[in-house]
Amino acid sequence: KPIWLIGDNFLGEDNGAAFFDFLSTKQREIIPFFAVSKNSIAYDKFKSQKHVVSFESKVYKLLLLLSDCSISSITDRRLIKPFEMQNDSYRDILHKRNYIFLQHGVITQNLAREHNKYCYNPKGFVVSAYPEYDSLISGQYFYTSKEVWLTGLPRFDLLRNNENKKIITIMPTWRAYLVTNSPSGEKQPLATFIQSAYYKFYYSLLTNKKLLDEAQKMGYTISYKPHPLMNNCTRFFETKDRKIRIMTTESYREIFAESSLIVSDYSSAIFDFLYLRKPIIYAHFDRNEFFSGKHCYDKGYLDYESDGFGEVEYNLEGVIDRIIEYMKNNCQMKELYRRRVDNFFAYSDQNNCQRVFDKIRELEKMR
Predict the structure, then answer these.
(1) H or E element: which one contains 256?
(2) Whole-structure pTM over 0.85, yes or no?
(3) Which of 98, 173, 230, 259 is most buried, judged by most C-beta within 10 A?
């Protein structure tokens, strides 16, 4: 049977983990192995399961040479070029393997600098939406329709809905210009973090008396989910007056299931929430700074005002008023945004893993 090596992020809750679960429980045509770092949270989650190996082991490197393909939600060099200075010695074997990029989210910004074909040359690049597909084969990324697969993300199959919790989640993406690498490799906030527009906006939002009083009156909880790369910045959001509910250990899947509304900015994580047809609000108080080149994104094809999936607000007062409006209307997605979501996604079912599986098998038959 073919051997497939699956990789995922350090949390083990992305498309790699979802696809591995699918292969382990619903397919018998191939032998899947899940490869993660022994020092990761993912390893602790999966180590008791069959066919789980660590990147640091000799077994992993042997499997990599024997495998038919590597499949990952992140562009991990340990799956693409794992032998460091000895890659040339194994290049003929590695060349025969297929590398499939499951992706980490839905691309709306211009990520051609880090995800063009010549960065890691995937045989398959999984996407979920019609405009996303069109952007990847438009020329900037150098892909063709042969490599870009409009299948949907594997993790979408695992999404569930539990709206009874009445939670409003504030969930922005990270800012490369507000953190730096520590000696351990973790992101740490810069000394100027608390002077940033990012910190001032979200601290003010999470501690706003008007918003918190209205939420309490209507039975809602306001929570903050930082991007994993900014978890070490959360200490600056602690306050004695009002305890902010900060979610660093809760899984994204759990947050999407229990949240009634998400306030975000430019994050692609909100597409899992939109897949459930639940409402969002965009907070674009720092758009010019974000797209100035300081962060790792360039502006993409999505025009938030004319094509976005929720209202765009540019200041604190606008975001607060909009959240209160949604709470008063039981956080129902408006018809305009429902239509846009319906027209955006290629699929709205729970067969994404199966479509990815079929595409890989099809690719193998062509070898």
Answers:
(1) helix 252-258
(2) yes
(3) 259
